[in-house]
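Thread: Modeling a multi-component assembly for a lab meeting

Hi all, long-time lurker, first post. My supervisor asked me to bring a structural picture of a complex we are working on to next week's group meeting, and I have zero experience with this. I have the sequence lines for every component (563 residues in total). Could someone generate the structure of the whole assembly? Inputs are pasted exactly as I received them:
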Amino acid sequence: MTDFINALVVLTNFILVPALTYGSQLALGALGVTLVYGVLRFSNFAHGEMMAFGTMITIFGTWGLQALGVSIAPLPTALLALPLGIAGAVILSLIFDKTVYKYHRQRKASPVIFLIVSIGLMFFIGGLVRFIIGPGDQIFFDGTRFIFSARDFKRSTGLDEGLALKMTQAVTIITAILVVAAMFWFLNKTRTGKSMRAFSDNENLALLSGINPDRVVMITWILVGALATIAGTLYGLDKSFKPFSFMQLLLPIFAAAIVGGVGNPLGAIAGGYVIAFSEIAVTFAYKKVVTYLGPDSFQPDSLVQLLGTDYKIAVSFIILVIVLIVRPTGIFSGKTL
Amino acid sequence: MTGGYGAADILKECTIGVDRGEIAVIVGPNGAGKSTAMKATFGMLPLREGHVMFDGEDITHLKPEERVVKGMGFVPQTHNVFTSMTVEENLEMGAFIREDDIADSIEQVYELFPILKEKRRQPAGELSGGQRQQVAVGRAMMTQPKVLLLDEPTAGVSPIVMDELFDRIIEIARTGVAILMVEQNAKQALEIADKGYVLVQGSNRFTDTGEALLANPDVRRSFLGG
Ligand SMILES: Nc1ncnc2c1ncn2[C@@H]1O[C@H](COP(=O)(O)OP(=O)(O)OP(=O)(O)O)[C@@H](O)[C@H]1O
Ligand SMILES: [Mg+2]
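Re: Modeling a multi-component assembly
Sure thing. I ran the full set together rather than chain by chain. Output:
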């Protein structure tokens, strides 16, 4: 029995908690991608770099607050700087919309043109971020590190295995829940949110009903800028801020959005967790779990790992390909914003 | 009105009109330009010549949403509901330009179409064809328009539902709303029409009262199947 509980603790510590954390980050990222797709009807490749940009501004805000001696310990100061980062990402998004996207929108350009334009912006924002903050790692996490550590857990339970909960993990999961709840409330209960859904559902009829398309587009960019910054900051707090990592995040984020059915917010969230759990479960070494659950004195020689962690990124790619072949419209097909 | 989508004119000196409390019906073969005439009236098509008058005012250069504010409502032939949104949300979106309380208007629509009240929480995309048309008309009614443009409101519904819908449309007209509608079910539509227009290749072929058109042997032979 103790063996079984120990195995469960290992799985919770190394798969459940990290996957919930990473999944929340992906879900928020995918939600941003899906909003752009639902309202503006293109795949926004610049989203990953927009996350980096918003996070960068948040980091500057955090440093400023730290210099002033402001602290909300045990919570990380970055949470306090988030509004500044969001403002930065929103302003940049609106500038891009006015100077770049609007032109193509007025010419009724096809989605593939938008997609290519967004790739251009992706490189531009990426360069801008590295130019401003540099390509190196930035650690901007402060506050309490653990809510409870593996050692605390072992001492209080008497088990051999430890279960730790980092502050960043708790903050990520709770923030994601709050943000997603606020987002659904906005889309389903407010007049403006409903008008966004109406626009996404049937643009022509929305115009006939007097819904102002410019306003819908503006609100979309505001929401997307906020989501990008929050997702990026949570990711940066949890791992570290490395400008290049955001380009790599693009694949799992798009995989999450597409797996759930692109354009569908609920799908984006489900997709985020599907991708995160698969990535972590497939690359986890199950040796300890097998040892606990197997017959006595049984010890596997290998790590019992399906795929090396180096191949993590391949997991989203494989899921993406499978979904596109088996169910191209995603799990929650047929539903829009 | 004269105009079209590109270089070629679809409408050629086409004239249509309707007065307060009246029902005017446009009939004609497929591709005659009936929907185009409706779009032109609603400002979704640039006119090369001619103009659109509303209550004695020239509104030729107003955008569709500005015409909604003036008191025009339009139900397009296709894609005329928000399929992913509930019936009630569809009605709310119909009233988007209004700043005042819309609860009364929603109640009025439910009185007119009681089935919609039952289905208020259901996505419009899950309703039957006839119910969807009711949502579409209800949505346009939400701005309390003075003129209602209906493009084939009975398309794809059974004869019983069609009679139902026509009854509702007559009811709406009785409240003083002017109704301009395109219909494939020419005979039944002309029976309830105060005015009728037979459109062929973008021009008026016959214009008369509904009764007179029904009695006209030429119209009967060519457009009403004998
Ligand atoms: N968006 C468009 N762009 C270009 N041409 C169009 C467009 N819509 C319609 N047309 C053309 O305009 C002509 C008239 O079409 P319209 O839809 O007005 O006919 P209709 O009388 O409503 O026919 P139906 O009874 O089938 O609804 C047709 O020749 C059609 O091909
Ligand atoms: Mg038509």
